[in-house]
Design brief:
The chain has two domains: 32 residues; 97 residues, Oxidized Rhodanese, domain 1 (3-Layer(aba) Sandwich), CATH 3.40.250. Helices cover 48% and strands 13% of the residues. The protein contains seven helices and five strands; from the N terminus they run ααβαβαβαβαβα. The N and C termini lie far apart (73 Å).
Length: 140
């Protein structure tokens, strides 16, 4: 009886296994990823202790609204054409950030391909930085 049920509903069992795998993948993938997500306070410690590079990957219009002091601006859309500009800084830890933390993950993957060994993303992006009471410079 049970074997008959499995034979008749194999596609349901397969769907259950696949969906379960999809739910677990973000946790598993995070452990294998060389990119880590850090909060604003952890970022300030990394900047102060290890001279981490803050990399703003927002587009120019967003950047003009304000940025983390001393951040390097390289829009994500220009990584392919301008990524080589960062090569001289590959020995430093880098913290990529955008407005809320979504685009910086994509940029972080590109940074590892450029040779950065220690790559972080700022959890919550510039908004979280500002909400933590940390300084924001007005754009030029």
């Amino acid at each position: 009886m049970d074997l008959q049920f499995l034979e008749n509903n194999w596609w349901l069992i397969l769907a259950m296994i696949v969906s379960g795998g999809m739910l677990l993948w973000p946790m598993i993938g995070y452990r294998w990823s060389t990119v880590r997500e850090i909060g604003a306070m952890e970022a300030t410690q990394l900047i102060n202790r290890r001279n981490a590079l803050m990399l703003d990957v927002r587009e120019p219009k967003e950047y003009q609204g304000g940025q983390v002091p001393n951040a390097v601006h390289l829009p994500q859309s220009q990584f392919a054409s301008r990524g080589h500009e960062l090569k001289k800084m590959t020995g430093r830890p880098v913290i990529a950030y955008c407005d809320r933390g979504q685009r910086s993950r994509t940029a972080a993957s590109a940074l590892t391909k450029l040779g950065f060994a220690e790559v972080y993303t700022l959890r919550g992006g510039l908004r979280a930085w500002s909400d933590a009471g940390l300084p924001v410079e007005k754009g030029t």
